[in-house]
Specification:
Blueprint: H1 17-20, H2 45-66, H3 70-95, H4 104-107, E1 110-113, E2 116-119, H5 120-148
Antiparallel strand pairs: 1-2
């Protein structure tokens, strides 16, 4: 309706699609060596043992204090299952890379992160602060319940 007759373009009919497409040249690719995939967390076993110990202390203190209650034991047993699954999945991921050669924290004293190297104290502090807080919480709750004299 509002077409300008001067802007009309003549279209050609093609017999096949290959008549419309330009010819494509394949450029030979150089095979670059890819960096090997790093599976694992590069943490020493002591950190894993520390985390497991903290969660075990938390769950043991709650079990010792609240173990007589069936509802509490159901919640505690579900928490135990979650902790076991968490560490089992982490162990499975670590076992995917059997030739990792140990932790760089043990070899060089530093662990490389996205923001630069971290020394041993920083790594231990950042990784173990939450498990230690959870263990402290579990023991504190157990002591409060014990000294208050009325288990939940």
């Amino acid at each position: 309706m509002f077409e300008n007759p001067k802007d009309r373009v003549q279209f050609t009919n093609a017999e096949a699609t290959s008549d419309l497409l330009p010819e494509i040249e394949i450029v030979p690719q150089e095979h670059a060596v890819a960096q090997p995939e790093a599976r694992g967390f590069e943490l020493p076993g002591r950190i894993w043992l520390g985390m497991i110990s903290c969660y075990a202390l938390f769950l043991a203190s709650l079990t010792a204090t609240l173990g007589s209650s069936g509802e509490a034991m159901l919640s505690i047993s579900i928490s135990i299952i979650y902790v076991v699954i968490f560490f089992a999945v982490a162990r499975t991921v670590v076992m995917q890379n059997p030739g990792n050669g140990g932790s760089p924290l043990d070899r060089h004293g530093f662990l490389m992160t996205h923001f630069g190297p971290m020394d041993r104290k920083a790594v231990y502090g950042q990784i173990l602060v939450v498990p230690l807080a959870i263990a402290f919480f579990g023991v504190a709750v157990s002591l409060i319940i014990k000294f208050a004299g009325s288990p939940a």
